[in-house]
From TrEMBL:
UniProtKB keywords: Heme, Iron, Metal-binding, Oxygen transport, Signal, Transport
CDD domains: TrHb1_N
Reported cofactor(s): heme
Family label: Belongs to the truncated hemoglobin family. Group I subfamily.
Pfam family, one: Bac_globin
Matching PROSITE patterns: PROKAR_LIPOPROTEIN
Name of the protein in question: Group 1 truncated hemoglobin
Length: 123
């Protein structure tokens, strides 16, 4: 689906700086999560940070363009399971809660990311 025309969700996430703090929190939570951290040992974390910020900005209606690879290509060969996917979502929720994002806004972002699941798991 095209990103929302209104930037209400982008604002609720705290705009550019809020999204940067959320993604930083997400990556810290992943680093502490023994269920999924092994997937990230060879990842380029600076690039991942930059692309995740762009993606969440765009999906929330902010003034960004996502310049990363497709979800299919970026997760190819990783054999990510539903459990891995759910673990990452949990880490994102914890990061958003820590930034004071209201639950309704959290759910709106998750609702935008959920359809990517099929492009990410078992690639
Ligand atoms: C809603 C769920 C997810 C979203 C929105 C997402 C998004 C992204 C984005 C934007 C990138 C960067 C693409 C690029 O470099 O051009 C990426 C890379 C990556 N993702 Fe995900 N991802 C999700 C789920 C997962 C899960 C569940 C795992 C593993 C447990 C995972 C592991 C990785 C790894 C390891 C990379 C880095 C690849 C590299 O640097 O070589 N992702 N993801």
């Amino acid at each position: 689906a095209p990103p929302p025309a209104e930037d209400e969700l982008y604002q609720a996430l705290g705009g550019q700086s809020g999204i940067e703090r959320i993604v930083e929190g997400l990556l810290i939570n992943i680093a502490d999560d023994e269920r999924i951290v092994s997937h990230f040992v060879d990842a380029d974390i600076d690039r991942l940070f930059e692309k995740l910020v762009e993606q969440i900005c765009m999906e929330s209606g902010g003034p960004c363009e996502y310049t990363g690879d497709s979800m299919e290509d970026s997760h190819a060969g990783m054999d990510i399971t539903e459990g891995d996917f759910n673990a990452l979502v949990e880490n994102l929720i914890v990061a958003m809660t820590a930034e004071g994002v209201p639950v309704t806004s959290q759910n709106r972002l998750l609702h935008r990311l959920a359809p990517m699941r099929g492009s990410i798991i078992y690639r």
